[in-house]
Amino acid sequence: RFIYGLGQKVILANTIAQCVDTIYSLDYFSLTGSLAWIGTILYALQIYYDFSGYSDMAIGLGKIFGFEFEENFNYPYIAKSVTEFWRRWHISLGQWFRDYVYIPLGGSQVPILRHVLNLFVVWFLTGLWHGASWSFVAWGLGYFVLLFIEKFIVKPSKRNCVLKAFWQLLTLISVNFGWVIFNSVGISMGLKYCFGMLG
After folding, report:
1. Is 89 left (phi over 0), alpha (psi -120 to 50) or beta?
2. Hey, which residues are catalytic here?
3. Whether pLDDT at 44 is above 90
4. What is the DSSP string of 114-180?
5. What is the pLDDT of residues 120-142, one digit of tens each?
6. Helices (H), 65-133
7. Is 41 exposed, middle or buried (0-12, 13-18, 19+ CB in 10 A)?
8. Is the dihedral of CA 72, 75, 77, 81 positive or negative?
9. How far apart are the C-alpha atoms of 68 and 134, rounded to whole Å?
10. CB 56 within 8 A of CB 1
11. pLDDT tier at 87 (50, 70, 90 boundaries)?
């Protein structure tokens, strides 16, 4: 398990990172829409293999010393909704925020406005947890907006098969736009890259 994780990190993530760095360093005015999409899809793979690789190495080392650690990733890119994506991505972080921030604030067992505030606090702190940068805060608040739409407006779990498939595709696209902001030096640079993805 340790070697499997090391392979993800060294062979996949580090190799993909070289391509990502090259694409993200291009001048935005010369960046084509297709190349921008290739860059963000590659970054989505890089960050997954990087972090999933570290998690697998930790699980493998734990087994060597007789410890059993829970899985931290569960095929997040096949998620059918943003909610499901976060149940599959960085599971330990999601559980920590759920147990120590969301539930103590009242979770969803409160009036709607308070529920919205609870979601806002959790995702603001989730962004801030990744680093003291406005890009991370914007990334976290972007997920707050997506989850607000999902929980209170669209409710994809109650839609028919066609709309569920559409929402799954929209989730994957939204996650990719989110990774652009996450990977950018500043919000303005991230937005320029996003506009590049839109042509």
Report:
1. beta
2. 130
3. yes
4. HHHHHHHHHHHHHHHHT-SSHHHHHHHHHHHHHHHHIIIII-GGGS-HHHHHHHHHHHHHHHHHHHH
5. 999 999 999 999 899 999 999 99
6. 82-88, 91-97, 112-129
7. middle
8. negative
9. 36
10. yes
11. very high
Contact between 37 and 197 (Cβ < 8 Å): yes
Nearest to 198 by CA among 36, 28, 22, 19: 36
Cβ(52)–Cβ(5) below 8 Å = yes
Which residues, at least 6 apart from 114, have a Cβ–Cβ distance to it below 8 Å? 106
Burial of 184 (0-12, 13-18, 19+ CB in 10 A): buried
Residues 81 and 150: beta-carbon distance below 8 Å:
yes
Q: Which two tokens stand for residue 176?
A: 């990719």
Q: Are 177 and 159 in contact (CB under 8 A)?
A: no
**53, two tokens:** 């690789």
| Structure tokens belonging to residue 76 | 């997040």
pLDDT at 157: 66
Distance, CA of 18 to CA of 1 (rounded, Å): 25
Phi then psi dihedrals of residue 186, to 5 deg? -145, 165
Q: What are phi and psi of 98, to 5 degrees?
A: -65, -50
What is the helix, strand, coil percentage profile of the chain, to 5?
Answer: 80, 0, 20
Q: How far is CA 52 from the centre of its chain?
A: 12
